[in-house]
Automatic annotation (TrEMBL):
This is Nucleotidyltransferase domain-containing protein. InterPro entries: NT_sf (IPR043519), Polymerase_NTP_transf_dom (IPR002934). It comes from the Bacteria. GO terms for molecular function: nucleotidyltransferase activity.
Amino acid sequence: MTAPAQTPDPVSAPAAAARRLVEARYGEGLAAVLGGSVAGGRFTARSDLDIAVLLPEGGRGRRETVRHEGRCAEVFLYAGSVPLHDPHGLAAERCREARELIAAGPAPLTDAERDDSRYLLTDLAEDLADTAGPGQDPHEQLALADRTLREAAHLLSAVRGAWSGAGKWLPRRLRAADPVLGAALLDGHLAVARHGEPGPLCAAAHTVLGLVGGPLREGLVHTRGPGTAGG
């Protein structure tokens, strides 16, 4: 009987390449892990290899970007990883601790942090709404949309007890925190970028504000510690 065809494992080939790199360049390491796109299941032909190496005591901490077997690799600390070389179980323990930390989520916002975020998002959404219609500077509009998306994503992630992200991780973390409202924010940002239409993003931002008591303008008091200069 012919054995059934096996589905290729998208992690195995890049993991094997990463393992060869670790063995060739970082043989002194106590442990190594592979993270990034491979661990997250998003590896493509152009993806880098994101590798973390645990050095022995006294080793020189650093970040290196190297090319190995035709692929760029970055060596740095990364959570949520696939173990490559872990003879002492140190990487497995660190990964377990990191996963627990990620699963626990960030600390809740303090009342002051929440109100500061409410105030900023309110201000940004109002300024963005004012860019509707002809004659507006598209560069200013897009800059406001970027800030509005980031602040709304930060506040929504905090409300949902989830970690926020930056760069390509902003939409990934945002969708994970709230698939429906996160998608509304991202689609609203696209509406500004593609059509110069700020309405959908402003509406989604106000929905986020509704989760924390609504827009906040009047009545916010900022407090500063002793010796802090005003601005």
